[in-house]
Design a protein that fits this description.
about 10% strand, about 200 residues, two-stranded antiparallel sheet, elongated, mainly alpha
Length: about 200
């Protein structure tokens, strides 16, 4: 709940994000047995709808660990959040960003959001927190498209400060952060079916 409030996304989005992160690391039957002995789950369930690729992964791991769906998801999501440093709730509002964005980056952003069933604003916020690309982005010539998304106000204010410090307009700064997150050598988001042509 704290993470969803801080990032201005739904609890369901945070649960699916945690699932995706855990699946990328890999899960063993021994790990599930350890978690089952370590974590006590509440009896109350939180229903969510998941995309097919996540449902398939859950069912595959459920069969391996011989657990029911609620227990399996509850344990690996709890493990993900319990392994993070304690989070403090950040009071604040959402800020709607409406900026021109290079079509190549915009397409990658929306494709990743669809593949991972994630909120676009969450990806933009994470990209800003990750920082801008140190260099000149190499992009195909194409028109920019205006996009809108909500991000936490404190992340928006941080982007404003950093863009001013770098001496570049905010939309260039955000685009540089997205380029760094999706297309640089140190990218933090990897598309499953990426077209890497530039």
């Amino acid at each position: 709940m704290t993470a969803s409030k801080n990032l201005s996304v739904s609890r369901a989005s945070m649960i699916m994000y945690a699932l995706t992160e855990q699946f990328e690391k890999g899960i063993t039957r021994l790990q599930m047995l350890t978690l089952d002995n370590k974590i006590i789950l509440e009896k109350e369930n939180f229903p969510i709808s998941m995309p097919k690729h996540l449902v398939n992964k859950v069912e595959q791991y459920m069969a391996d660990s011989k657990m029911n769906k609620n227990n399996f998801i509850g344990l690996i999501v709890s493990d993900y959040f319990e392994s993070l440093p304690p989070a403090k709730e950040i009071e604040g509002e959402k800020h709607k960003l409406t900026l021109p964005l290079h079509k190549q980056i915009k397409d990658m952003l929306y494709q990743y959001a669809e593949e991972k069933y994630m909120n676009v604003g969450l990806l933009v916020a994470q990209s800003i927190e990750n920082g801008k690309y140190e260099g000149v982005p190499e992009l195909n010539e194409s028109e920019k498209e205006t996009v809108s998304y909500n991000i936490p106000k404190h992340i928006y204010e941080d982007a404003l400060t950093r863009s001013a410090e770098s001496g570049i307009p905010l939309h260039f700064y955000v685009e540089s952060c997205l380029y760094n997150a999706f297309m640089s050598e140190n990218k933090i988001f990897e598309l499953e079916n990426a077209d890497t042509s530039r």
